[in-house]
Amino acid sequence: MRYAGELRSALPEENDQILDLFGAIPMDGDLVLVTRRDPNFFALYEMQNAITECLVTEPDSDKKLQFVSTFLIRDGWLQGKKQRVGYLGDLRTSFSGRRRAIVSRLYHQVFEEISAKHQCSFYLTSILESNKAAIQALVERKNPRRQQPDYHFFRRFFATSIHFLRQRKPRPSSYLVRTAEESDLEKINIFLDQDHRQRPFGYCFDQGEFENRLKWWPGFSLKNTYLAYDRRGQLVGCTSAWDPSEVKRYQVNAYRGPMIWTKRSYNFLAMLLRSPKLPAPGEVFRYFYLCNTSILEENPEIFRALLDQIYEDFYLQKYHFFTICIYDQDPLQYAVEDFFSRTLPFHLYLVTQKGTEIPQISFSHPGFEIALA
Prior knowledge:
Elements: E1 2-3, E2 7-9, H1 15-23, E3 31-36, H2 43-46, E4 51-57, E5 67-78, E6 81-93, H3 95-99, H4 102-118, E7 123-128, H5 132-138, E8 150-163, E9 176-179, H6 185-196, E10 202-203, H7 209-216, E11 225-229, E12 235-242, E13 249-255, H8 258-273, E14 287-295, H9 300-314, E15 321-327, E16 341-352
Parallel strand pairs: 6-7, 14-15
Antiparallel strand pairs: 1-2, 2-4, 3-13, 4-5, 5-6, 5-10, 7-16, 8-15, 8-16, 9-11, 11-12, 12-14
């Protein structure tokens, strides 16, 4: 389907071209990373219970794509009501695409068309805090871009990676942590549903969201879902460890500046402790995410008990780290303090059509899965 003149739906046979565009645009900084989505770029979308609109331009004279962007639209909770909500992701523009000003000329039109088509008015999107070019192009509108969608700053968050640098045992806790079983499914669904109904952009776990993850997310399982119980036997915490390597990986292109020395010192310590060394340029990180994380009353002691058990269970599996989402002024940050971790700051934005009235949104954790961003 064609949108806004030059933009149209991506075709399955353009998979390799999209992968080439993704691979050509790394995340820049002291640690230069590129997102790998091979062999199937669309696999990350196909496993989600959402409508997907992946847009591209026509290839140039060299048969290369200059632009790709994706709208993911699903049922979600907002202000206590179930409605269509969306996520904007995977926006990539080549140098020639930037010269053609594809974003400033066309993005507002396609945004309006897709929003009307799917009756979705509110979206989330995340931008790396150091990506000044993207913030300037999308958020800080100048006159030529005055018709673009409105980006309202929502929350600052940190992609927090806990590294498996040394072996450690779980600390004493008043909470019992164990992995889930089939008999826990109903209890998990009720717990997650009650939590997400209160979240802005919460997932609809009452519509089988957790079962969808078990069925369609490669490697997602009950045996890697961790439950925390208090002394009365009440479920007070839930999270799932998920390895995304079949659909998404991060490849190191280069270490620069301070990261060169960080890598050397880290690898020396890793050698002494017999832990995995950081990947060389051209290699990928081995990592996993914590998904569908719900902690009763955002209690850091519950979260710490879960983190301790996950760390112990996965330490010998030779992962470099696992990643969690920690928000600015987040009570859960105290659960991470005793771990060796690194953080990468992002901005989370609420995106609407220009002039749309902004709803009153609570400051609780949004229904945002960093693993899918």
